[in-house]
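Hello Y.,

Per our agreement to keep a running log of every chain we model this quarter, I'm adding this entry. I've kept the format consistent with earlier entries: sequence first, then predicted structure.
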Amino acid sequence: MSSSTRPVTVLEKSDVLPALFGVWDDLDKLLATISEAELLTTQTELPGWHVRDVVAHLIGTELMLKGEPVPEADVDVSELDHVHNPIGVMNECWVRSFGALSSTELLEKFRAVTGDRRATLTAMSDEEWNTPTMTPAGQDSLGRFMRIRTFDSWMHEQDIRESVARPAPDAALQKPEARLSLDEIETMMGFVVAKRGGAPDGSRVAIELTGPMARTIRVAVDGRAAVVPDFGGPEPTTVIRLDGWQFTRLCGGRPLGAVRPVVIEFEGDAEVGKRIVENLGYVI
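Predicted structure for the entry above:
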């Protein structure tokens, strides 16, 4: 996270935007294969939301970023069991506003708003791209916000795929949008390992991701926790090893999926490792 007194995250438009647009393209192709019945009746792993609700949420978020006001809901959405905070209230208002649309109309709406956003973001100057703004991770650059949008959109693509049994093939999990999603997750691992997972001072935690999304994330806790390129010689005190796609599910507060390996291995201080895994879900 960046504060107003610290430099913003500078990311290349040429890296982030193709990934964001790639998620939208993949969602377009995926949604075109889903029947009206599947869209309306298939429950996702997100409480209270069917597939159509996830699509409506994606549309609503992009409309909000265009500057459109949050619509009024037909009920007090704060009373719904699956709504727990102001962000949830806002999301639910957008979701309910598209409740009368058919699957064809919903897909057309998705194509229209993402097409408009694509044009706006493509035309944006580097100065605008790097301008500080409020993001879900605090104040940071608009470019960081769009990487977060890539991550969020990619996660929801996986939610839909898991629900309708159309898992992403290995090749898709090696695309830029998957890489940038992991990049975004990685920035939060110091907080997750030390604050949520309670790794003690002196810990050196290596999270070894396997499969198509393979990488190793290293976190050193030395007064404060930080993601580091290496431990400078010493071995890790804890190693956590699991499939990369499953790792993204846990970080997003989802259960492990059925289509990829579910085994999680620990080396070194397994107690710390298990506590970290139990607290990976940092996404609101």
